[in-house]
Each structure stands twice: as C-alpha cells, then as structure tokens.
C-alpha cells in the first residue's frame, strides 16, 4: 500500500491505509493507460457507457443518504452530491459519448454489466440495511479514489490524450468535493460515536465496508479493460 494519500480526512486516511486493494484500484492498468495515453479508445468508451449506468445508481445511493442523514448539514451535503451527479457528471458522459458517435438513447439503453451491478447494489444495500455511516463508508472509495487518481495523474501523466478526464478529477472543484466528503465522514462519525470513534469495533466494521467497495472498484476497471466481457 502507498504510504501517503491526499489528506482528505482522518477516517478515510485510516480506511485507505487498511484497504488491501487500494493500490490495485488507484494504480490499476486502466489508470496507467489513462496516464500514458495507451488506453484504447474503445475501452474508454465502454467504461464511460458502464459508468453512465453506474452513476445513475450511485445517485440513488446518495439520495438514500439524504433519507439516512441525521442533521440538516448532512442532508445538504448529500443533496449537493445528488444534484452534481445528475446535472453535471452524467451530462459530461453524454457529451463525450456523443462526440464519439454514441447518442444519448444508445447510452441510456446500455446493458448493465454484472460487475457494475455488484458494486452499486452493494453500496445501496449498505445503506438499506445499515445507517448513514455504513452508506458513507461504501460510497467513500469511489469519491476519494478518483480524487487521488486525478491528483497523481495530473503530476505524472506523460500524454494528454485523456487530459480532460484527468483535469476533471485533479481540478480544484473536485479536490474540494473530496475534502468536503472527508469532513462529512469525520463529522458524522464524531456526531454518532463520539471523538474516540477510531478506537471502537464499529470503526473496524466500517473500514471493512470501505475495503469491500475498494475491491469492487478494481472489478470496475477490469471490466473497462475487457469490452468483450460486456453482456449482449
Ligand atoms: C466506477 C466509478 N467510481 C468512481 C467514480 C467517480 N465518481 C463517482 S460519483 C462522483 C461524484 C461525487 O460523488 C465521482 C467523482 C466514477 N465515476 N465511477
């Protein structure tokens, strides 16, 4: 595991260090292909189409966070994320795919890959059967991993083929979102478990959720690298 992160918060820094697959996720061959520009365009577009489906369910999971929240600021943070996903991030996917000749209707009809389904339904299930903390622990690797990937690739990229993608996640706006989500998690833990939350068994259970979602992110990149594994 890498020893350093991007410092998004106390809890996520601990969870990140304890997740066995963190490097497999953030330094995956797909990510390295974005870094050096060798990722085939077909793999990128296949990934984007699956990610469009992913974001739809991920938005539902953040909407569930509004339901599971306990304070108005928690509700506001979750609402802002839902809004950003539906009105900004999904639109970016539509635009990039349209430029590559995949129209919005085709994108919306993308068959959902089982690895995609496994990940989003795992996150939703964490929220359905658990509380706000369970849901945030399952949501966190996605948000913060892309922040870490973006920041590293902005410094280490050797090609600008995927510069727009890298720039989106390396940019100040997205890095600010990552710090906000890290602070939301630290605040939610303190509010529910007290300031010594990191010493409690519950914290280790949440860490395991974070690790599981991290492993499912690895599967998502794997899927992106093998377009032929998509269901009909
Ligand atoms: C598989 C997969 N994992 C993570 C992200 C990144 N991401 C998902 S939602 C969001 C906005 C804040 O919640 C960001 C950056 C993705 N697009 N696809």
UniProtKB/TrEMBL annotation:
Q: Name one GO molecular function term.
A: thiaminase activity
Q: Which CDD domains match?
A: TenA_C_ScTHI20-like (cd19367)
* Pathway noted in the entry: Cofactor biosynthesis; thiamine diphosphate biosynthesis
Pfam families documented for this protein: TENA_THI-4 (PF03070)
Write down the chemical reaction(s) this protein catalyses. Answer: 4-amino-5-aminomethyl-2-methylpyrimidine + H2O = 4-amino-5-hydroxymethyl-2-methylpyrimidine + NH4(+); thiamine + H2O = 5-(2-hydroxyethyl)-4-methylthiazole + 4-amino-5-hydroxymethyl-2-methylpyrimidine + H(+)
Could you tell me which residue ranges the Thiaminase-2/PQQC domain spans?
Answer: 16-225
Q: Which InterPro entries match?
A: Haem_Oase-like_multi-hlx, Thiaminase-2/PQQC, Thiaminase_II, Thiamine_Salvage_TenA
Q: What Gene Ontology cellular-component terms does the record carry? A: cytosol
GO BP annotations of the record are: thiamine biosynthetic process; thiamine diphosphate biosynthetic process
- For this protein, the Enzyme Commission number is 3.5.99.2
Q: Which UniProt keywords apply?
A: Hydrolase, Thiamine biosynthesis
Q: Which domain of life is it from?
A: Bacteria
Which family would the database say this protein is a member of? Belongs to the TenA family.
Q: What is the role of the protein in this entry?
A: Catalyzes an amino-pyrimidine hydrolysis reaction at the C5' of the pyrimidine moiety of thiamine compounds, a reaction that is part of a thiamine salvage pathway.
Q: What is this protein called?
A: Aminopyrimidine aminohydrolase
**What organism does this protein naturally occur in?**
Dinoroseobacter shibae (strain DSM 16493 / NCIMB 14021 / DFL 12)
